[in-house]
Design brief:
single chain; mainly alpha; Rhomboid-like fold; Serine Threonine Protein Phosphatase 5, Tetratricopeptide repeat; 2 domains; 14 helices
Length: about 325
């Protein structure tokens, strides 16, 4: 593997060095708890247009080890790229890797912080070019490959064991994007195909952000579906509201952390005049929070509506029978 330049050469690498220093400053502010860096992190505001969070979420880091590891590889791998491709192209490459890996992790997982996705992207990029471009020969050796691959799977195990939460989707998608971008830069007959795959990956990652309530693999999608239910209810789209709240409840196996989801589902059913379904939903809300007055009142109200509906139905049935008897009497008059 190529020996990285000394730190006193930082002015020669304004993109890599600047991003590293910015990550250091933001991380220190984050750890101090005196500065609110939440506007930089991935959350539901992305769907409201704050797409910069997909990139700025790479700046804060969870702890000094997390920061040191990411800054090390940003410097080792990024300086070579900036040396060969220049400042603008390096900046655009890092921007693409940050946005693509960040979007994918937020869409399908919890959404993370740190430069890990970018680091894996730079690794994938240089792994390809080290085999196809003489200027990058030796940039990534077998030991580096073993380190990145081994760390990737170790992080998955640690996350599954709940020992350490890692943005594994960002790692995987970042590496994949880096590989495809590397193939695109390397050229050859398949260059247009690789370019198209890169565009597709970036577009899919971005689109997945807006489809997060439907594609996310964590329990967080339940809360987002519940929020979509609230929006639909406010817009008087009661059928859509019920569909979203049912989906939110299904994610948590029928026992959502918030009894309000069952209550809201009952409201949506009641607006559709599906009183039987509303009664069931209110009942489930009461099971979870039996002392909630609103739930009690709603359950009693819908019970009254059901009884009224049954009474009206019985009256209508009686009238129908009477009308049928009159019709039969008119059709078959009695002889006197």
């Amino acid at each position: 593997m190529r020996q990285p330049p000394p730190l006193n050469a930082l002015p020669r690498y304004p993109v890599v060095g600047g991003i590293g220093l910015l990550a250091l400053a933001v991380s220190l502010a984050y750890w101090s708890k005196k500065v609110d860096v939440s506007p930089l992190m991935e959350d539901h505001e992305i769907r409201e247009g704050q797409v910069w969070r997909l990139v700025t979420s790479t700046l804060p880091h969870g702890d000094p080890i997390h920061l040191a590891f990411n800054l090390l590889w940003l410097w080792v791998l990024g300086t070579l790229i900036e040396e060969v491709f220049g400042h603008v192209r390096t900046f655009l490459l890092i921007l693409l890797l940050a946005a693509g890996s960040g979007a994918a992790d937020y869409a399908f997982s919890h959404g993370g912080i740190g430069l890990s996705g970018v680091g894996y992207g730079l690794f994938g990029f240089l792994w390809v070019l080290s085999k196809r471009n003489a200027r990058f020969r030796g940039a990534v050796d077998a030991q580096t490959v073993q380190l990145f691959v081994g760390w990737f799977f170790l992080c998955i195990v640690l996350t599954a064991a709940k020992v350490w939460h890692v943005a594994n989707v960002a790692h995987g998608v970042g590496a994949l994007l880096g590989v495809v971008l590397g193939m695109t830069v390397a050229g050859g007959a398949l260059r247009p195909l690789y370019g198209a795959v890169t565009a597709l990956l970036l577009a899919a990652s971005g689109a997945a952000v807006y489809a997060r309530p439907y594609v996310n693999l964590t329990v967080e999608r339940a809360y987002e579906r519940a929020d979509l239910g609230r929006q639909a209810f406010d817009e008087r789209r009661y059928e859509d509201a019920a569909r979203h709240w049912r989906a939110a409840i299904a994610v948590t196996n029928g026992r959502p952390p918030e009894s309000a989801w069952w209550f809201n589902l009952g409201l949506a059913y009641e607006r559709q005049k599906n009183y039987a379904a509303a009664k069931y939903a209110y009942g489930r809300a009461l099971e979870m929070d039996p002392d909630e007055k609103d739930y009690q009142d709603a359950a009693e109200s819908v019970e009254s509506l059901l009884k009224l509906k049954q009474t009206v139905k019985a009256i209508e049935a009686g009238r129908a029978r009477a009308s049928e008897k009159e019709r039969q009497a008119d059709t078959h008059p009695v002889d006197e």
